[in-house]
């Protein structure tokens, strides 16, 4: 099941470290190549020799024990398909959540751009500590998979939540994530993100509160699942996939149209301004001291989502039935509503003609704009609706792809 997969295991200084020996054997039995990185304290619970024999690879501990020209933390990060940190102590969780890289394991985690699973194990009081809870939330918001500890008798003598979760659960989650990486292989996914910027003069503009986080989470997820990704965004971001920086609605429209013919799916998550200034001044407009009001004439921006759907449907009308079943490209829209969410969304999907519409409730302060969390409803052309409960935007992104691609 794991043939040819490279799994990197990070072991920290907890009593449950001995259990990872059996997990290594599970991975190896199913065809994976396993490498291990330990914190120095982990070796108080399991020996380096044991881990080397089980993994059949050198075990990394010291950050500057460099056998090759390439820094160890980069080579480990480059070679692995997935990273598991188990058991993960409160100390290591806090370091990773806050970008602290003071040993090889935390440096690898910071450099790792592929999926990471963290399986915490600690005293129940530590697990319930507010700072630990905040760090876990930060990691989840960034797309890291957390396998929560289980209830039971702990090595410290307490009874409570803190035991390393069952090894089978860790193994199954690893297989699930690595399987997801193949889901979108061979597909080109174009995603828009962030609010457009419509200039008024040389210093002022019209925009909105969109942070682009939902669109970027979708792009990260598509890339994670093997897609050829193009992100079109007004947000400054560096990614391992293609990023096209735009400013205005017109810029966004042109960029999407350039990618249209080769796209298998277009997801319009950007918050496009409905209007722009009719005339853009090439200098800073001065305040009129003789008047307390100022009139700015606005004109409508193109409805990019609707135009894309019309273009696609026009092409499909000229094809035979078997060709139309391919329905390429799949078009997914987003709508932001402050009231009557489902009613407005149903009206919009009918008017726009997209395959799916993701409806966001922007009236809530705990989700949406600038938040790392979201709660959405997915509507399709048949009128059916599925609500995705509040979760990190990274998790919402994975659920969206599960719904539209099965």
Low-confidence stretches: 320-325
- Annotated CATH architecture of the largest domain: 3-Layer(aba) Sandwich
Q: For this structure, what is the CATH class of the largest domain? A: Alpha Beta
Number of helices: 14
Q: What is the alpha-carbon Rg in Å?
A: 25 Å
Q: What composes the largest sheet?
A: 8 strands, mixed
Q: How far apart are the termini?
A: 20 Å
Characterization of the model:
The chain has 406 residues and is α/β, with parallel strands linked by helices. The protein folds into 2 domains: 175 residues, Rossmann fold (3-Layer(aba) Sandwich); 218 residues, CoaB-like (Rossmann fold), CATH 3.40.50. 34% of the residues lie in helices and 24% in strands. It has 14 helices and 20 strands. The strands form 5 sheets. It has an 8-stranded mixed sheet, sandwiched between helices. A 6-stranded parallel sheet has the order 3-2-1-4-5-6, with helices on both faces. Strand 17, helix 13 and strand 18 form a beta-alpha-beta unit. Helix 3 crosses helix 5, helix 4 packs across helix 7 and helix 9 packs across helix 14. It is elongated. The protein starts with 5 loop residues before the first strand and ends with a helix. About 1% of the residues have low confidence.
């Amino acid at each position: 099941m794991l043939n040819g997969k490279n799994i990197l295991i990070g072991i920290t200084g907890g009593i449950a470290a001995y259990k990872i020996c059996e997990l290594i054997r599970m991975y190896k039995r199913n065809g994976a190549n396993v490498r291990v990185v330990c914190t120095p304290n982990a070796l108080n619970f399991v020996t380096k020799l044991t881990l080397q024999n089980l993994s059949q690879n050198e075990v990394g501990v010291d950050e500057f024990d460099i056998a090759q020209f390439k820094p160890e933390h980069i080579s480990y990060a480059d070679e692995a398909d997935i990273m598991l940190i188990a058991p993960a102590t409160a100390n290591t969780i806090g370091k990773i959540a806050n970008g602290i890289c003071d040993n090889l394991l935390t440096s690898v985690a910071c450099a790792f751009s592929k999926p990471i699973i963290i399986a915490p194990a600690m005293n129940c009081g530590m697990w319930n500590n507010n700072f630990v809870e905040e760090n876990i939330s930060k990691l989840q918001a960034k797309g890291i998979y957390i396998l929560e500890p289980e209830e039971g008798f702990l090595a410290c003598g307490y009874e409570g939540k803190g035991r390393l979760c069952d090894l089978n659960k860790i193994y199954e989650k690893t297989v699930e994530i690595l399987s997801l990486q193949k889901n979108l292989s061979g597909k080109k996914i174009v995603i828009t993100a962030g609010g457009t910027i419509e200039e008024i003069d040389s210093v002022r503009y019209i925009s909105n509160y969109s942070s682009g986080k939902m669109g970027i989470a979708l792009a990260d997820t598509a890339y994670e699942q093997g897609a050829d990704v193009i992100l079109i965004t007004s947000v400054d971001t560096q990614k391992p996939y293609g990023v096209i920086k735009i400013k205005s609605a017109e810029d966004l429209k042109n960029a999407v149209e350039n990618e249209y013919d080769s796209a298998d799916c277009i997801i319009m998550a950007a918050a496009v301004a409905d209007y722009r200034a009719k005339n853009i001044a090439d200098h800073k407009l001065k305040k009129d001291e003789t008047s307390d009001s100022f009139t700015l004439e606005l004109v409508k921006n193109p409805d990019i989502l609707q135009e894309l759907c019309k273009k696609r449907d026009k092409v499909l009308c000229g094809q035979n039935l078997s060709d139309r079943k391919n329905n390429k490209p799949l078009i997914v829209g987003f709508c932001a509503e402050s009231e009557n969410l489902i009613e407005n969304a149903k009206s919009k999907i009918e008017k726009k003609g997209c395959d799916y519409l993701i409806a966001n409730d922007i009236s809530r302060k705990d989700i949406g704009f600038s938040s790392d969390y979201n709660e959405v409803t997915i509507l399709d052309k048949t009128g059916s609706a599925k609500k995705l409960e509040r979760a990190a935007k990274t998790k919402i992104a994975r659920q969206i792809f599960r719904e539209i691609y099965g």
